[in-house]
Amino acid sequence: MQRIDMGKRCTIRPEHIEGMFIGKLRNMLVYIEGDVGEDVIIVKAYLNKRLRDNKYQPIADLILCKEYFKNAYHVDLMRIDNRYQGHGIAPKFYRYVMKKLGIVIQAGRMQSAGGRQIWSKLCDMKDVVMFGRKGRKLYQLEVDDDTGELVTLEGVKVYDGPYKFDTFACYQG
Predict the structure, then answer these.
(1) Least enclosed by CB within 10 Å: which of 66, 91, 93, 153?
(2) Order of strands, sheet of 150-152, starting from the edge strand that comes earlier in the sequence
(3) Distance (Å, rounded) from C-alpha 74 to C-alpha 171?
(4) How high is the pLDDT of residue 3?
């Protein structure tokens, strides 16, 4: 996977809720636009508090696409409103989406430092299984104690290593 730099600041304006309610995650209402099995799914989390004009404050947007593998959704975009960044919401949101929708998610092929941190935190969750694929060979992944980034159990680097990995996560609760 390649590293990219992205600005951290993201402000998401209040909006009317669209889509189908799938549940609550802490103090967030989670909605999905599209259905599992479709090529694109948009999952949004809103603060559980109605604002003026019957709008709600979005906390997170997640756009998933079945572009590369038919059995996994690729993360095309993940945004957290800047007021909620740094609270560990993204890995919990990914885990919740995998659990509620019964899907496997695939890491983006280019990741920011924040994206790499999300996947490392996912890997540390006991009910999430992380694996990588190079060609047809599968590798179980873990977090390197020194760098805090993903590596195979054999110690092969996922980022900046000699191999191109596709990285996946699935809920095993």
Answers:
(1) 153
(2) 20-25, 28-33, 40-50, 56-65, 73-80, 105-106, 166-171, 128-134, 137-143, 150-152
(3) 15
(4) 45
